[in-house]
Amino acid sequence: MAWLKTLAETYDVYSHLAGVDKNEQAVLLPISHSTFNAQIEVTVDMDGNFKNAEKLDKGKNVVTIIPVTEDSAARGNGNFPHPLCDKLCYVAGDYTLYTGDNKEKYFESYIEQLRDWVESDHTHPMVRAVYQYLGKKSLVHDLAEKNVLELDDHGALTDHIKIQGLGQTGANVRFVVLDHHMPKEVWKSQELYKKYSEYYQQKAGEKKLCYASGELELCSDKHPSKIRNSADKAKLISGNDESGFTYRGRFVSKEQAVSVGYETSQKAHNALRWLIQKQGYTRDESAIVCWMANRDRQIPDMVKDSINAFRRIDDFDFDFDDVDDNADWNRNRHDTGKYYAERFYKAVNGYAGNIKPDDKVAVIALDAATTGRLSVVYYDEMGGKQYMDAILHWQGQCKWRRTVRLENSEDGKKRITCECAPSPRDMALAAFGVQRSEWLEADSKLIRAAVKRLLPCITRKGVRIPVNMIKAAARRASMPQTMSDFVWRNDVLCVVCAMIRFNYEEDGKTMDNFLKDNEYDRNVLFGRLLAVYDYMEQRALFERDGNGKIKEMRTTNAKRYWNAYSSRPAKTSKTIKQNLIAYEKKLNGYELAKFEEWTGEIMTRLARSGFDNTALSEWYLPGYYLQIEDMKKAFQKKDNNGGEEDE
Question: Domain tally for the chain?
């Protein structure tokens, strides 16, 4: 129940934003309110006279905040009306007359409930105006007169005509009230929110112990849905199984299993819904959100790569869009990535210095347990300093040079190449993804399970990335011919190298000294040998333009035999070497001498470490990558063309 209590406290921190619609951003719902998509908007005056109506197109702002009861918020097919805005069958007294569908009891329940609000001490002139108009039972008639609803040749309302893809009879109706010729939208009135919350909470009954807050509260056994999005019917807390009695065995009644105060539940669910819409990760039927619970401050997003994790923080002192425009970036193309990293991490450290010791950060991950149920698969709370230390440790130790797309960039396609930590989803796709189109794709269940396993690695120091996930990613990286070269290198090879680095760098070990510290490791040596063969063929085979860029890219022998090489390295290396004899003749003297030098050094060490066909571990991949980078630097220094070799 800790997550419920923390979310309720979060609601109190942001309560001044309840019901405030700012720049079409997510709205924190007031207590006892929910949302629906409206299809019809009706305008009346303060005396309850019909003035106008219109259909609402999908492109218009149709999401409407509405007051609800416990029963109406959780209704299925029962007769549980919302207190003000609702479906046509509830608000139209002449609905049965025009459809032949006997729904008079729905209207009677609605109008009786609305009358109770109007006659209470918490009424409002706009509510009274709507009540006076609907009491005339002429809504369908008036809408048909305005051509908002269309009747058939027999004067009946049918569903052959659609509004936003929905049949006319199922349309949701909202109201505008003219006050001195000024239109007032009932779903945006802060005063109306407050009046209804006061009205509804004074109607509640007996107080019980709330398991979340530990206080005596008016409790509820019906809790909100629409947590991940407005169409989400899954609930986090539910006890409506009156036939299977899933709570039996340890409890006599569902109230013994869980008892949550109505206000606490409303605050917690509304805060969670708002946080997910505002800053949450919602993909693959899961939702993950991290937030500062004790004050209004944005924090880096743990489920994004280290570059995009800071992009939505308003006061983060770094201009991501300035990367390509600033002359400093282009002063030396060799230093672009290094210069970017220096500026970026300086900004990160500056941001981290603003986190207070008493700040509280919470992380929650939700998953779809069944069609109608959500489960909390991960929850953690920590101090703000602890969270930032964990994030900086993750981003500093699980990084690799790769190309990253900047989210929410102007054209949506802006990319930068730098050292950064991949997101958990990038890692899951590297392990289980298959390229079917432009990018990697994978089963949503696999992605959800993998991301869930990676969350503790981010928030808790000392938790390693699961070895079986790294091995799965290494197997994908060992099949370069199954994907494009860019996707293989950027989204698989670089990602698995970052994962290996995270587990490797401890007890003073760093990836900067990886080749030297593992100079006799056969896996690393075979990776280096594969890099020599691959780059040798690239230098000999690929024709370059005046800037040193490759004109035409073709698959090398190393790429073609890669998968076999990872399983039987000694045998396959001989095959690759034999196929390279013709290409060696195209190398100049310096190139040939360097490749022979590297090959001789590696083979000498392999003779001592084990030149055999034992399958390679994942360590051969950073061995390959780092050897390639070392060779490029050596030739760039020799060529002295001021350009960067194409990868």
Answer: 4
Measured CA to CA in angstroms, residue 217 lies from 211, 214, 220, 286, 326 at distances of: 10, 9, 9, 31, 58
CA distance 519 to 524: 7
Q: Over pLDDT 70: what percentage of the chain?
A: 89
Residue that the structure tokens 């805005």 belong to: 85
With respect to residue 55, please indicate whether it lies within any of the assigned structural domains: yes
Tally of CB atoms within 10 A around 305: 23
Q: Render the burial of 410-423: b for 16+ CB within 10 Å, e for the rest.
A: eeeebebebbbbbb
Give the SS3 label for residue 507: coil
Decide if 644 is inside a domain.
no
Which of 203, 237, 260 lies at the terminal end of a domain, its last residue?
A: 203
- Over residues 319-330, the pLDDT tens digits come to 766 655 444 444
Q: Which domain holds residue 428?
A: 280-509
Predicted structure pTM score: 0.85
> How far is Cα 643 from Cα 133, in angstroms, rounded to an integer?
76
Same domain, 218 and 117: no
| Rounded distance between C-alpha atoms, residue 61 and residue 421, angstroms | 38
Q: How far apart are CA 90 and CA 88, in angstroms?
A: 5
CA dist., res. 612 & res. 402, Å (int): 32
* Mean pLDDT of all residues in 293-319: 86
Q: Is 522 or 297 the better-scoring residue by pLDDT? A: 522
Return all residues near 364 (Cβ < 8 A) that are at least 6 apart: 3, 272, 288, 289, 290, 376, 378, 379
H/E segment holding residue 599: helix 589-609
